[in-house]
Amino acid sequence: MTIWQQIKAGTIPPRLTVADVYALTEAGLLAENERFDLIDGEIVPMAAARSSDHERVKQRLGHLLNLSLPRALGVFVAAEIAFAPADLHEPDLAVWSAEIGSQEVRGPDLLLVIEVAVSSIGYDLRVKAPRYATFGVRDYWVVDAIRKTIRVHRAPVQGAYSGVEEYEAHDRVTALLLPEVSVCLEEIDGPPVRRW
User: Fold this and answer.
1) Using CA atoms in the order 91, 92, 98, 104, what is the torsion angle rounded to 10 degrees?
2) Domains in the chain, please, with CATH?
3) Burial class (CB within 10 angstroms; exposed 0-12, middle 13-18, buried 19+) of 116
4) If DSSP codes are grouped into helix, strand and coil, which group holds residue 70?
5) pTM of the predicted structure, to 2 decimals
6) pLDDT for residue 132
7) What is the helix (H) or strand (E) element at residue 87, kind and residue range?
8) What is the pLDDT of residues 122-140, one digit of tens each?
9) C-beta pairs of 5-13 under 8 Å, 24+ apart in sequence
10) How far from 179 is each of 176, 186, 189, 191, CA to CA, in Å?
11) Which one of 8, 135, 153, 154 has the minimum C-beta count within 10 Å?
12) Read out DSSP for 150-189?
């Protein structure tokens, strides 16, 4: 039974807290592979299947991060991050101190957050960016896996990023808080491919 069917049947309430999500998952009422964001207590479903472009770029970025960073920092893939009591997000990649558990990490603890987008680019830019800014994420990248661009969001101020730049596949982008992380999409995934 899907989460929506469970809400309709009354086995899961229509609005949840992060604590509810953890308890429902532990009780087996929510599948661990159920993908959704929790925004102000509302469940927002994420795509169950991801494109091969998305997965390839995410894997290559994750590999580069793992090679570049010291062991004291963790590279987390699709980790659930509780930003507030009613806000839970699963960025594609996130970096924070390996000493902080995923249920304890908060926005300012995150050294880099990356969303890889194919079909979700509008959501990642218009919904997630302001949420991440609100919760103090200082370096948020949206990587367009098709166009091979990186939209970098920095300097969060009152729910918005005051510094936003877009870089092309051949450009080198260095993480704000992790100078050892330098990414050129063309080097790790080739130039953009025309699809028409």
Assistant:
1) 20
2) 3-34 (no CATH), 52-189 (3.90.1570.10)
3) buried
4) coil
5) 0.89
6) 96
7) strand 87-89
8) 999 999 999 999 999 999 9
9) 7/43
10) 7, 19, 21, 24
11) 8
12) EEEEEEEETTEEEEEEEE-TTS-EE-SS-TT-EE-HHHHH
